[in-house]
């Protein structure tokens, strides 16, 4: 029996065997992908109320609190940014040709519709994303900050920043995608659809208009 899922709007879309998952009353732990099954850390999902032990199971909680490094088991990486409330690191399976980063809250917040996401925290995530776009866009020679559009040209390289709309999240912990360069997934790839189509993603500015804080 096969289980289809949109995986990794933070990572990749893929197919897993049902035998590779561990069920609990409140969540599922999906282990790796068919590509690098033993290298990719588990992804924990839950479907109702937040489990009491979510921080011990959520991969982004572990990265944010320092108990796990970003990257694969064989090739761990370092945080790109850290503050009192946020961390940022490279996506384990980048979807952009130049750089693909994730801005993640240290506190466990399920997604961009979670009431625990405040306007103050959203603005901080947006600000950090803009700083990262400036820092890593090597072709940005005019020192102008990137715009807040879904896809904007900053110094010649395409830039994108967005949240994946629930329920299409690959990881049940809020993360803001920060991408520089062209999309590198094939045109038929489900993840590329998520990155390109606003049915599946929402920018920080759009989020401020669509939900109440």
Task: List the defining traits of the structure above.
single chain; 213 residues; alpha+beta; 12 strands
Itemize the secondary structure elements and their pairings.
Layout: E1 2-5, E2 14-17, E3 21-23, E4 27-30, E5 43-46, H1 54-57, H2 59-64, E6 81-82, E7 86-90, E8 99-105, H3 119-136, E9 151-154, E10 157-164, E11 175-180, H4 190-196, E12 201-202, H5 204-210
Antiparallel strand pairs: 1-2, 3-4, 4-5, 6-7, 7-8, 8-11, 9-10, 10-11, 10-12
Short description:
By secondary structure, this protein is an alpha+beta fold. 20% of the residues lie in helices and 25% in strands.
Could you characterize what this model shows?
This protein has one domain: HIT family, subunit A, CATH 3.30.428.10. The chain is about 20% helix and about 25% strand. The chain contains five helices and twelve strands. It has helices at about 55, 60-65, 120-135, 190-195, 205-210, and strands at about 1-5, 15, 20-25, 25-30, 45, 80, 85-90, 100-105, 150-155, 155-165, 175-180, 200. The strands form three sheets. Strands 6, 7, 8, 9, 10, 11 and 12 form a seven-stranded antiparallel sheet that branches. Strand 9 and strand 10 form a beta hairpin. The protein is globular, with a radius of gyration of 16 Å.
Kindly report how far apart the N and C termini lie.
42 Å
Structural class: alpha+beta
| Beta strand count | 12
Computed CA radius of gyration, to the nearest angstrom: 16 Å
Helix content: 10-25%
CATH superfamily: HIT-like
